[in-house]
């Protein structure tokens, strides 16, 4: 079997901690090129992975040997670089959030269809063992009717993880567009859609309270109503200074599922009859190198290419999760509940 030849565009933390190491250990992948506007950074990465170094991504896209690219760039560049890559006949794995507007996201999907190439959005929460197990339990009917949920993703902020620290693009509104909602909230929007179906309405309070000298959001609390009628909350925060929170709790007729809410058990079910069941599963990935585990995103993307099948998180899925975040921002501005299908195509 011929190896999938990959290029990684953008060599910041997400590329160096997730994409590149996971491509490296996949036996069906060869990393042939890396690209970053910081010459010293890309030179170091290229040497480490035995790849060619570039500072202009368009030169990378001209390489006929490249089959697929990872787009690991600031949010405002996701659409333009992804579309250029698709038009260059490359498959694309794009970091989240997919784009900064629905128009951009639609253009990305249209480019994928026109060029008959795959686009996958790097929403990794669907691949977490506890989340996969929870989906099976919910769909089996074991919990009975689902009543409510809460899902949270918070940590101390990207200055503690981004390769550029406090000067990172994450804090520049023109480059990031959104803060904690785009960094963390969109992951949880994708997860809750994966577990419970589509979101129909959103109400939100979105604030900048923990970080100075930035106008991007660092705290958001959203109320989501699902098409099924289930209501719950989604929280995204960069203000958790003493540790992170990446938990989800789902309340059902017959019991409650806790996901990633216990240091020893990734999934716990407390039944209303008093019975408790605890599952020890693969731990969720973290930004702590000691706790770093594979996200499975890379392997899934590569398999989709090799076996010519749709990835789990297609561009169509990515746009639906983006809609939740855009609806939250609109709700915060309008001080009204926003219906998902009513938001403007350009936010």
Helix-strand layout with pairing:
Blueprint: E1 4-9, H1 13-25, E2 29-35, H2 39-49, E3 52-54, H3 57-61, E4 68-71, H4 78-87, E5 91-94, H5 102-115, E6 119-121, H6 129-140, E7 146-154, H7 173-176, H8 180-196, E8 199-207, E9 219-226, E10 231-237, E11 248-252, E12 255-259, E13 267-271, E14 276-279, H9 297-306, H10 315-334, E15 338-339
Parallel strand pairs: 1-2, 1-4, 2-3, 4-5, 5-6, 7-10
Antiparallel strand pairs: 7-11, 8-9, 8-15, 9-10, 11-12, 12-13, 13-14
Helix pairs in contact: 4-5, 5-10, 6-8, 8-10
* CATH H-level homologous superfamily name of the largest domain: Dihydrodipicolinate Reductase, domain 2
- The top-level CATH class of the largest domain is Alpha Beta
| Average predicted confidence as pLDDT | 95
Give the helix level as a range of percent.
25-40%
The CATH topology of the largest domain corresponds to: Dihydrodipicolinate Reductase, domain 2
Radius of gyration: 20 Å
Shape: globular
SSE ordering: EHEHEHEHEHEHEHHEEEEEEEHHE
Distance between the termini: 44 Å
Structural domain count:
2
Total number of helices: 10
Report the structural category. alpha/beta
Instruction: Report the CATH architecture of the largest domain.
Output: 2-Layer Sandwich
- Low-pLDDT runs of 5+ residues are none
Report the sheet with the most strands, covering strand number, pairing sense and barrel closure: 9 strands, mixed
Strand content: 15-25%
Lateral arrangement of strands in the main beta sheet: 14-13-12-11-7-10-9-8-15
Total count of strands: 15
Protein name: Gfo/Idh/MocA family oxidoreductase
Domain Gfo/Idh/MocA-like oxidoreductase N-terminal: 4-123
Pfam family, one: GFO_IDH_MocA
Domain GFO/IDH/MocA-like oxidoreductase: 132-257
């Amino acid at each position: 079997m011929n190896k999938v030849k990959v290029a990684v565009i953008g060599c910041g933390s997400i590329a160096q901690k997730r994409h590149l190491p996971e491509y490296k250990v996949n036996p069906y992948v060869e990393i042939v090129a890396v690209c970053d506007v910081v010459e010293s950074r890309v030179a170091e990465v290229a040497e480490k992975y035995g790849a060619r170094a570039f500072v202009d991504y368009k030169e990378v896209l001209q390489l006929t040997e490249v089959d697929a690219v990872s787009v690991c760039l600031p949010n405002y560049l996701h659409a333009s670089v992804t579309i250029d890559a698709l038009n260059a006949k490359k498959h694309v794995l794009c970091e989240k959030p997919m784009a900064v507007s629905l128009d951009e996201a639609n253009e990305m999907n249209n480019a994928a269809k026109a060029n008959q190439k795959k686009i996958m959005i790097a929403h990794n929460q669907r691949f977490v063992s506890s989340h996969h197990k929870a989906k099976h339990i919910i769909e089996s009917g074991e919990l009975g009717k689902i009543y409510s949920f809460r899902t949270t993703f918070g940590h101390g902020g990207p200055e503690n993880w981004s390769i550029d620290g406090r000067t990172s693009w994450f804090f520049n509104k023109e480059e990031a567009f959104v803060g904690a909602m785009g960094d963390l909230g969109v992951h949880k929007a994708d997860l809750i859609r994966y577990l419970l179906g589509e979101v129909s309405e959103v109400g939100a309070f979105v604030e900048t309270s923990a970080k100075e000298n930035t106008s991007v959001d660092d705290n958001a609390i959203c109320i989501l109503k699902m098409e099924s009628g289930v209501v719950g909350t989604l929280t995204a925060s960069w203000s958790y200074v003493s540790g992170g929170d990446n938990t989800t709790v789902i309340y059902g007729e017959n019991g409650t599922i806790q996901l990633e809410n216990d240091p020893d058990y990734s999934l716990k079910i407390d039944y209303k009859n008093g019975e408790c069941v605890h599952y020890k599963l693969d731990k969720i990935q973290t930004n702590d190198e000691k706790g770093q585990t594979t996200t499975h995103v890379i392997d899934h993307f590569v398999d989709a290419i090799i076996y010519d099948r749709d990835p789990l998180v297609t561009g169509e899925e990515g746009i639906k999760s983006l809609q939740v975040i855009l609806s939250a921002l609109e709700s915060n501005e309008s001080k009204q509940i926003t219906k998902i299908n009513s938001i403007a195509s350009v936010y």
